[in-house]
Amino acid sequence: MTKFSVTYNRNGATSGATPVDPGSPYFINSSVTVLGQGSLGRIDHVFKGWAVTPDAAVPQYLPDSTFAITENILLFAVWEENIILPDTYHYNEHLISVASVVIGKEVLWDLKY
Fold first, then answer.
1. CB of 19 within 8 A of CB of 40?
2. Structure confidence at residue 97 (pLDDT)
3. Strands 73-81 and 6-9
4. Which of 38, 59, 64, 74 has the fewest Cβ atoms surrounding its Cβ within 10 A?
5. % of the chain exceeding 90 in pLDDT
6. 98 vs 7, 55, 69, CA distance in Å?
7. What is the pLDDT of residues 31-82, one digit of tens each?
8. In degrees, to the nearest 5, what angle opens at C-alpha 58 toward C-alphas 21 and 48?
C-alpha cells in the first residue's frame, strides 16, 4: 500500500528544531494530527500555525488539528511579525513613556508617567 509523508518547514525560523512527525509516513486516508511549533522560534515574530505555501499569512492547519492524508504534504510555518510601537507620546502636555509590543493581536503595555 502507498504511504504519504508529512514534512514541516521552518520557513524563516531563527532558532529551534524543525518538528518531525514520528508517525510519518502514513497510509492513505489516515488521520494526521498537526504538530505544534515545538522549539521553533523567530525573532520578533509569533508562530500562528502551518500552511502549504511559504508566503501564507493565514495558517491552513493549526496545532493539534487533524486531517486525512491523501498525498505527500509539506507544511510551512506561518509567522506574524510583532509590531513595536513608539516609546513616547505627548498627552495633555505630559510626556508618557510606553513600553509596548503587539504580539499577534494582543497588546502588552507598560505605561510610565
1. yes
2. 58
3. parallel
4. 64
5. 69
6. 42, 32, 48
7. 999 999 999 999 989 999 999 999 999 999 999 999 999 999 999 999 998 8
8. 55
Grouping H, G, I as helix, E, B as strand and the rest as coil, residue 35 is: coil
* Mean per-residue pLDDT over the chain, rounded: 85
Residues 57-70: b if buried by 16+ CB within 10 A, e if exposed: eebbbebeeeeebe
Taking alpha carbons only, the member of 11, 107, 15, 89 closest to residue 50 is 11
Q: Are 78 and 49 in contact (CB under 8 A)?
A: yes
Amino acid at 59: P
Q: Which of 78, 77, 95, 94 is nearest to 86 (CA)?
A: 95
- The residue behind cell 504519504 is 4
What global pTM score does this model have? 0.76
> What is d(CA 23, CA 32) in angstroms, rounded to the nearest whole number?
8
Strands of 1-113, DSSP E: 3-4, 6-9, 26-27, 31-33, 45-51, 66-68, 73-81, 83-84, 88-91, 94-103, 106-112
